[in-house]
Structures are given as C-alpha cells and as structure tokens.
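task queued by scheduler; priority normal; single chain, no ligands, no partner chains; default sampling; output format set to structure tokens
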Amino acid sequence: MSTDTTASVSTHILDTSAGRPAEGVAVRLAARSGRDADWRALGGSATDADGRCKDLPALPEGTTHVRLDFEVEAYFAPSARNQAEAQQDAPAHRDSGTGVFFPEVAITFAVVPGEHYHVPLLLNPFGYSVYRGS
C-alpha cells in the first residue's frame, strides 16, 4: 500500500502469442535511491493464473528508481517451438537460434513518493512491450 513517503509497484504479464495471461513467470524487484546509487534487491514473486504478481515486496522509503526483472525463458521453453511453428510468419528458429529471442526482460523506471505504478508486460517469444498502466 502506498503512503506519502513511498511509491508502490504492481505488474502483470499477457502472452500476446497465445492471447492469455502468462502464469508462472518469476519476477524480481530491485530499487535504488538516486540515479548513482547501487541497486538493492528486494525480493520477488511469480505470476499467478491471471498473470499477476500480487505479493511484490514494498518499496523502501526514498526509492527513486525501480527495476523489474522478468525471467521469461523458462515460461516459453516447453511451448515456444510449438507456438512459433503454428504462426506462418514466425518460424521456430530465427537469428537467436532458439524459440525465445529475449530470455529476460528488465524494465527500469523512475518513481515518486505517494504514486502507484502498474507496469504491464505484453510478451511473445520474439518481442515485448511495456507501459505505465493504471
């Protein structure tokens, strides 16, 4: 929960190649207090059946930057080849040599105290998009 002295963060992942939430993706949260400060690992969670992380750690007071690290390779590993082969314009093997081009997605953003930041990740084996949601 956000207070006047801290920001709060939530996220969810949608697998746009399958048209469904991405379940079981590990998400790590880190924060720092100033652009030259060291990152402090805060912990993590995994997405539920709705693709949401409902139990991310709270941000410490003074946080100015947040990083979400999404471990997506394991999510796509069992099904990436089948999904890619099913798409005529997306062969299973591209320049990466695997069915997943981005094995990890790291999103860094600035925060201000008292604000809530919902950061959805739209994901497929060959690309991703993020935005500040509500």
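post-processing summary
- The radius of gyration is 16 Å.
- Helices lie at 73-76, 80-86.
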